[in-house]
Predict the structure of TonB-denpendent receptor.
Amino acid sequence: MQSLLLKTSTAVIAFTLACPALAQSPDEMSDADGIVVTATRAPTPLDQVSASITVLDKAAIDRAQDIGAAELLLRTPGISLSRNGGYGTATSLRIRGAESEQTVVVIDGVKLNDPSSTGGGYNFANLLIGDAQRIEVLRGPQSTLWGSQAIGGVVNIVTASPQAPLEGSFDIEAGSRDTVSARAALGGVSGPLSWRIGGQSFTTDGISAIAPAFGGGERDGYTNRNVAGRAELALGANASIDLRGYYSTGRVEIDGFGGDAPDYSHNREFVGYAGLNFTMLGGRLRNRIAYNYTDTDRDSYSPELEQPLSFEAAGKNRRFEYQGIFDLSDRISATFGVENERSRFKSRSPSGSLSDPLPDFVRGKAEITSVYGQLTVRPLDGLTINGGVRHDDHNRYGGRTLFSAGGIWALPSGTTLRASYGEGFKAPSLYQLFSEYGNVNLDPERAHGWEAGVQQAFFGDSLTIGATYFERTTTEQIIYNGCDFGSTDPLCVVPGTDTPRWGYYLNVARAEAHGIEADAALRLGGWTLDGNYSWTVAEDRSAGTANEGNWLPRRPRHMANASVSYDFAFGLTLGSAVRWAGKSYDNASNATRLDDYTLVDLRAEYRLNESVRLFARAENVFDEQYMTAYRYGTLGRSIYAGIRGRF
């Protein structure tokens, strides 16, 4: 009874406090305008961003103690997550009920996506916190600046940039299920050269990917190794060269359709960036010419079969871009650019029998050239208005033009009003077009949405309360259509053959989403309290279909987060965090329900000195049994402890 009372109380706190506060650190402060963010493709004070945005600085990231980026992002408004098991398994993150592949992920200016994945999006399974200095979540359609995929929003990750002649950091922790994580980074500034390199190793015995209730018993482990580096060389007062790189390799054990199995998957990701930055016209025109490259390889194995290789895929992106920022005056600026992106993929699914030859790779490629521009005007102190346009020329689908507009007004009373409108365009992924389940007759997805919000600060920003209402409509949404045995549907065979297939992709869906995001934060003495509540109605509105009016799968309609911490004068910080997610459905027909759940975490941190801290946390302290994807397991009670250093 006491356990139930405490769980109920903490859930009430989550609703009552109803986005982690925008924590600030000195290197993120530009001037009186506040935090500078870069998810807008140009350094912009937070109070000049018209779209909804959450900023997590290094202090907030450290305080949360999360290992994976997905777990940290899940604490911010409007974000839901589903995962096919424990760490390292397929992880889908959705912003405001949009599809996972409709979110753009950016690391240090490089847009990440895997052309060989089902929707061409990014799998959050292997993205650890690593050397992240700041994470920004920009919600709503952002395709004007970020192009295809940015229908749900943008997750922008900025890694640490050196500020001193020599500096470093490290984090080491261990805990439940033989989990060990170790991270270290070193960097510095020497004359015209600044550099930083960091690496991380993570390993865990994990949990069964298939939940115990469905026969899962063995532990499915996961390992991840990654390294990231960056260097910038000043060529003079007005020019510099910027190089960045990131490499990650992961191995995760997975289960088969029937339950426990020795199957496993490998995932390798490489990201490269080279850029030239230069200014003209006395610094009023800032230019960037860059080349981005991403390479993702995925392999799956079933050791019990004669031919253990069961799946093989690779996706590559090459992206050339120019971006300019021109300050026409101290109140008017323009951001504009040109991009060319070339994507390739290949995949195959070999038979488990050695008597069957390896099939040829299914291959596909696409090219898209884009031109965009956005004008930002500050006609009055505190008032910022922007408008933008983008034209995409796709080699298969021709030209598409998108528009956006927005405004934000920060009043002297501490009230901030914001509103924005945006459009999105997403071409079918190469997998959806050319794989064994592909359909070359697919049309692009289109979306448009708007939002309006207000935030009020009290007592010199000690207390902030805000709320945002949003709507989004997506047409020609691409879904997977399963094929019954013996189906006479001509698309239920592999194109050009008589071979039956399990299903194919098609444009039949129309999706609509609307909702409210509310947040509050309070700082009083040593106390810090913050929380958020999201009401997201994401439905299938395909007229005349059996699923019309149904909830889109794996999207809770109600979600809430809350946290409270207290800093003692002698260096100890104690805190607790609560997450509550309402019910959802696992499938489009809404026949399979996923129950609501409440997770409670406890955290502690002790400052040994200005450079070193000890920390510990207990996650899911009540050992809640829940699912974010039907039949797949989730982490139970977990305890971790470690040490962190910054020098």
